[in-house]
Amino acid sequence: MDIADRKEMRIFSGSHNLELAEEVAELLGVSLGRLNKSTFSSGELYARVGESVRGFDCFVFQSHSYPINDAVMEQLIIIDALRRASARRITAVMPYYGYCRQDKKVLPREPITARLMGDLYMAAGADRLVSVDLHTGQLQGFITKPFDHLTAIPIISEYLSTVTSGDVTIVSPDAGGGKRAEKYARQLDAEVALVYKRRDDHVHNYSEALAVTGEVEGRHAVIVDDIIDTAGTVCNAAELIRDMGAASVRIAATHAVLSNPAVKRLSESGVDEIVVTNTLPVPAADQIPNLKVLSIASIVAKSVHAIFTEGSVSQIFLGENA
Ligand code: R5P
Predict the structure, then answer these.
(1) Helices (H) and strands (E) in the chain, counts
(2) Model confidence pLDDT, tens digit, residues 14-39
(3) Which of 58, 89, 92, 256 could be bridged to 126 by S-S, CB 3.0 to 4.6 A?
(4) What is the pLDDT of residue 99?
């Protein structure tokens, strides 16, 4: 046996999006690594690696879905167990990266949880992070180790190209999403419009859509965002552009956080379709008739394969994942 060639991979998954991890493992032709997980009476989580991982390249999947603190803690505990079991390299794969929106101080004496998250993953023993459509690309700089940033925009755009035709306008529901809207517009050969959104820094999840810059009248509008949380942002934008005479209105976003009252707002919004991905699990009860959930398993599987084989991740996205 040539021990220099010995390199093995294992994918482990937390409890918060097992379906996606299984889909990725199947595409890669591997089975999920064994974990013995349980919860103590006090609520503390426990995870023991159920097989030897000495010298292995390990990927730990977890989507930071509700209850988010348990999701993060479970992933950190699995990483800690792998490190103590002598894994060679540990990659934390968080298709949706929780706490990432608190990336700067807006008011005095606020925390910056996006940085705290990076520190926690580094302290636990992660050698690399992988996530999809980060709230802002500069989050990659919040850790000193490599951060592979994937994007679901090609998957969502490909789907949108099958359901839209004629004059299409990609609408960013806030100024911060302008670059994202341009990426979609390049893929769909569309125009771009921007909504002027005003937040209240003292009230979580509250915002207003005040005005639109760009052409929407008589055009097929697609509002694109990274996250649908309470759906206030996208539904306010939808109402405004429908009032301005858009011919049809769609909403597309990578991460379906769908906190209350998102499902009610989306059902009552009157939009033609809502397109999201499975970076977060979408429970059956939230799957309203005009909600389309696309799988990102193929891009995650390609990226995990590239990381394991030391190939290029950016090539998978033709450089559009910066
Ligand atoms: C904000 O900058 C984000 O891109 C989303 O627009 C926002 O987090 C969505 O939150 P909600 O759905 O609660 O309005």
Answers:
(1) 8, 14
(2) 999 999 999 999 999 999 999 999 99
(3) 92
(4) 98
- Top mutation candidate among 196, 233, 264 for ligand 1, by most atoms within 8 Å of CB: 233
Residues in the ligand 1 pocket, defined by CB under 6 Å: 101, 173-174, 176-177, 205, 207, 225-233
Phi, psi of 37 (to 5 degrees): -115, 145
Q: Which residues are catalytic?
A: 197
Burial class (CB in 10 A: 0-12, 13-18, 19+), 143: middle
User: Cα separation of 106 and 87, whole Å?
Assistant: 39
Closest ligand 1 atom number to CA of residue 229: 12
Residue 253 CB-half CA count within 13 A? 26
pLDDT, tens digit (0-9, with 9 covering 90-100), for 39-80: 999 999 999 999 999 999 999 999 999 999 999 999 999 999
Which residue in the block uniquely carries the two structure tokens 């084989």? 309
- The side-by-side arrangement of strands in the sheet containing 89-94 is 9-13, 57-61, 89-94, 128-132, 147-150
Average pLDDT of the segment spanning 141-148: 96
Distance (Å) from CA 221 to ligand 1 centroid: 18
pLDDT in tens, 82-123: 999 999 999 999 999 999 999 999 999 999 999 999 999 999
